[in-house]
Task: structure prediction
Amino acid sequence: MSLFGYILTVPQTQRAHIVVICTMNLKEYKVVVLGSGGVGKSALTVKFVTGQFVEKYDPTIEDFYRKEIDVDNNPSILEILDTAGTEQFASMRDLYIKNGQGFLLIYSLLNRQTFTDLKPMRDQILRVKNSDSVPLILVGNKSDMFDEREVSASEAKVLAEEWGCPHFETSAKNNSNVDEVFTEIVRRMKTTQKGSSSKGGCCVIL
Ligand SMILES: Nc1nc2c(ncn2[C@@H]2O[C@H](COP(=O)(O)OP(=O)(O)OP(=O)(O)O)[C@@H](O)[C@H]2O)c(=O)[nH]1
Ligand SMILES: [Mg+2]
Result:
């Protein structure tokens, strides 16, 4: 019997006492933020999750965040794994990649080496996932310091085209394209994987 049908069986005088608690299990998407040390992985993630810009550089070992996000009128939960850029922790990457569904590959547009470093990371993703259609986005961060850039937008676009993925330039400091990058990766995860879990909602009648 439907919930509505059940309520109709209850005498009208008692219906005012029925409290219905409904919980909706939202689809969950797991995104992994990868890139060399100091490119702004944590700053972008924290900006997206809390709205704050982290000025101080405190190298990450591993941080995990959950945030509800509304993409194209579909509320979802985004689980974000902010990884360590330092090579010391690179051995953990296979595990992160195995568990992740979408990947943000971040470089600093002030530092060419960080751009070059992304190629082996993408190769690793494709190898671990055993697929060449993994949702990922190439992200050039620190666009507020464009005067000091070492990587042009056009060469990054060429690489993104070669990889068949979008390219964004972001600034965690100026809040430029931060929400857009996270929204777009969810869109891509939705279309390729249709979400990791789509449990139905649950209603409790008191
Ligand atoms: N100007 C500017 N500085 C930024 C931006 N994003 C991050 N930073 C600064 O760059 C430094 C490193 O940022 P993090 O976010 O800690 O870098 P990370 O990639 O997480 O580094 P690891 O955790 O070591 O891998 C910090 O001092 C940030 O404030 C940005 O968009 N613009
Ligand atoms: Mg960090």
